[in-house]
Amino acid sequence: MFVSARAGPRLEADGLRPAALVMRVSTGYPGLGACLARGQDVVPPTPWNAPESRPDGPFPPGAKRSGMPEDIRWKQRFDNYLRALAALSDAAALARTRPLTPLEEQGVIQAFEFTHELAWNVLKDYLEYQGVGNIIGSRGAVREAFRNGLLADGEAWMLMIRDRNLSSHTYDQQTAREIVGRVLAEHHPAFADMARKFRALYDDAGTA
């Protein structure tokens, strides 16, 4: 069982390649339950421990923790972030062509939750790689990312956190509809801006 939606224009012009995600009753990925899809393929997250080269960044490099190096961690998490963002981009494209059904609105909310979780963890991982420590939770990651020039609008990201906390109350249809409206109009563009910023950091690392 899955919900399918054909995508319109997405982020391809910015070099972001959308992926296909489908809703399956048996899905093993929390938060993807009703994710809008393109096609019929499941694209699971890639392993978070594949080797990558270390990027340069705007901060002095910090010491690496034991275990997975931070340069690998943030880049692999970013790859997963792009996959989640692609599903949300499909939903945004569909919403421009017709009103979404209640089930599709739930799919938008779950795609938003998954994308947001990956987003703040990408920020945290990258900041830690650059030597910024003691980051606690999504608010701490957003504050430090804004302070260090990784996010242009810190207030918009704080409002995003508020909507993420409200999204657990989507049994209220009016609340759900309001969150979907803000996700499509405000949060999705903010996610896309972050993707462009980190794509540049990623590409710079590959040429360093």
From TrEMBL:
<protein>
    <recommendedName>
        <fullName>Nucleotidyltransferase substrate binding protein, HI0074 family</fullName>
    </recommendedName>
</protein>
<dbReference type="Pfam" id="PF08780">
    <property type="entry name" value="NTase_sub_bind"/>
</dbReference>
<feature type="region of interest" description="Disordered">
    <location>
        <begin position="45"/>
        <end position="68"/>
    </location>
</feature>
<dbReference type="InterPro" id="IPR010235">
    <property type="entry name" value="HepT"/>
</dbReference>
